[in-house]
Amino acid sequence: MIDIFFEELSSEIQKGITEKGHPFRFITMATVGNGPIARLRTVVLREVSQELVLSIYTDSRTEKIKHIKANNQISFLFYHPEKMLQLKVEGTANIVTDTSRLTATWNNVQPNSRKDYITNNSPGSFIKNPDHVEYLEEENYFTILDIMPTKIEYLKLQRPNHIRAKFTKTSENWKGEFLVP
Ligand SMILES: Cc1cc2nc3c(=O)[nH]c(=O)nc-3n(C[C@H](O)[C@H](O)[C@H](O)COP(=O)(O)O)c2cc1C
């Protein structure tokens, strides 16, 4: 019976990349690095594999990459307002080094979106005026992060009973347990 909730969450995550306007396209990503406080930011969910490996694109000079190099444990927050469905995903981040995958993906990035990965100065550098951003012509800092989920918590607010369940990845499959909401 708990399996239907895992199937629902998997299908909703997939819709984040296949359905236009789906709220799971934009997710919150948290990293902690070595610091005492979590750093949060919105990212676009770009790829989802059959095994639920979640991929995002970023610039290799960002703080999130520094954090992941120090500590590859991250979490994502998904929220679907119409379904009142929240997913908390914890997982291990891997910085993709496969150059053929990086090149093939980069070639599919829309020309206008390429600007996000080719600023002359690192993202987060101070500038006097927002128009004063220079772009590189030959190089890019395009990076793919693959996140392998290890734990997913499902929470749906509904009447008469809210549903909360925790799914933990074992060596073979996912083990689910209901929790008090
Ligand atoms: C709607 C929206 C979508 C975003 N998508 C991404 C993204 O896919 N990848 C990314 O690196 N940053 C994305 N950002 C910017 C991040 O939220 C963040 O500001 C940036 O990555 C720097 O974060 P960091 O310094 O913590 O690494 C997005 C921001 C917004 C508002």
Describe the structure.
The mean pLDDT is about 95. The chain has a single domain, classed as Electron Transport, Fmn-binding Protein, Chain A (Pnp Oxidase, Chain A), CATH 2.30.110. The protein has helices at about 5-20, 65-70, 100-110; strands at about 25-30, 40-45, 45-50, 55-60, 75-80, 85-95, 140-155, 165-170, 175-180. It is elongated, with a radius of gyration of 18 Å. By secondary structure, it is α+β, with helices and mostly antiparallel strands. It starts with a helix and ends with a strand. The chain contains three helices and nine strands; from the N terminus they run αββββαββαβββ. Strands 1, 2, 3, 4, 5, 6, 7, 8 and 9 form a nine-stranded antiparallel β-sheet that branches. The chain binds flavin mononucleotide. Flavin mononucleotide binds near residues 26, 42 and 57. The site of flavin mononucleotide has 14 residues, from β2, β4 and α2. InterPro entries: Pyridox_Oxase (IPR000659), Pyridox_Oxase_Alr4036_FMN-bd (IPR024624), Split_barrel_FMN-bd (IPR012349). One of its GO terms (biological process) is pyridoxine biosynthetic process. It comes from marine sediment metagenome. One of its GO terms (molecular function) is FMN binding. Keywords: Flavoprotein, FMN, Oxidoreductase.
List the helices and strands and how they pair.
Blueprint (H helix, E strand, L loop, with lengths): L2 H16 L7 E6 L7 E6 L2 E2 L5 E6 L3 H8 L2 E8 L4 E11 L3 H10 L33 E15 L6 E7 L4 E6 L2
Antiparallel strand pairs: 1-2, 1-5, 3-4, 4-7, 5-6, 6-7, 7-8, 8-9
The structure holds flavin mononucleotide (FMN).
Flavin mononucleotide binds next to strand 2, strand 4 and helix 2.
